[in-house]
Please model this.
Amino acid sequence: MVAGTDRASGKPPLKVLLCSPRGFCAGVVRAIDSVERALERYGPPVYVRHEIVHNRYVVDSLKAKGAIFVEHLDEVPDTKAPVIFSAHGVPKSVPVDADRRNFFALDATCPLVTKVHREAEIHHRRGREVLLIGHRGHPEVIGTMGQLPDGALRLIETLDDAKTFVPRDAGRLAYVTQTTLSLDDTAEIVAALKHRFPAIIGPHKEDICYATTNRQEAVKRVVPLVDAMIVVGSPNSSNSQRLKEVAERAGCPRVALLDRAADIDWRVFGGIESLGLTAGASAPEVLVEQIIDAFAERYALTVETVAAAEEDVFFPLPRLLRENAAAG
Model:
C-alpha cells in the first residue's frame, strides 16, 4: 500500500510520469484534419473508407460532425460528396474503383506509409522478391500488399516465419515493414533474415515511423521509474498495442491499454506510488487529461514529464484540400 497521505488533501501521494512524445503524430493530424477540412469546405456527409485513425473517441467525434465511415466503397452510394481514404493506406484497387465510380476521392494515407508502398514497388520492378514484415489483417498491411500483384509480397509476421521462409532466389530479396511495429521485435526478425540471406536489401531509411520509435523509447525510459503504466489508445491501434508490449517487456508489473478514463480498473491501479502515462499516435491528448483527472480524484498528484525526443514533423493536407484552403 501507499505509505502515508498528503496532509492537505488527505489523499495518498502519486507521482505521474508523462511520456514525451505521446499522442498524435503528424500523419494522424493530417488525416483527421483532412476529414475536418472536407466537412468544413463541402459540408456533410463526408465518406471515409475505414476508420480514419484507430481511435474510438476520434471516430465518434467525426461521426457527430457528419463523417460516415464504411469498410468498402460499395457501401458508398453514388455521390458527389468527398470520399476519403484512411491514414493506413489502401490497395491500388481502391482508387481505381473510386475513379470508375467518379468519386471525389481524397487520399489521407500517411506519407510514411506511402514511402513503404513506393519502396515495395521499386523492389518489385527490379525483379526482387519482396517481404513485408507486419501483422496479417491490419489495414496498413492490406494496403501495402495491395500495391503489388497477388503473391508478389510475402508476409513475415514472426521470428519463426523469418527462420523458415523459403525464397525463390536468395540473391534477389528485399524487405519492407509495417510502420507501427515494435522496434525490438522487428530487429530480431530483420537480424534473422540478414543472417540467412546476407544479400537481402532493406530500406534506405527505417520504415518504422519516427513517432512509433520515439513513443517506444519514452516508454522504455519511464518504466524503470514507475509501479504501473497506462497506454491511452484503442485496442485496434497497432502502435498503441506495441507500446503496451514494450512496457511489459521492459518489466513493468502492471500495464493497461485503455480507451478512456472510465475503463480504469481501480483494483489494478489502487495502491500505487508512481504511474507512467503515454498515448498511442492516434489518441488525443484530451483522453490523457481525463485519465489524470480520474487519478487526481483518488490521489494527491505530482506530474512530471520524461522526454525522449523533440518532434517537429509536419505533413501538409492532400493537395485538393490545400488548394481549397488557399482559395478560401
Observations:
- The chain has three domains: 13-24+210-307, 26-110, 112-196.
- The radius of gyration is 22 Å.
- The chain has a mean pLDDT of 94.
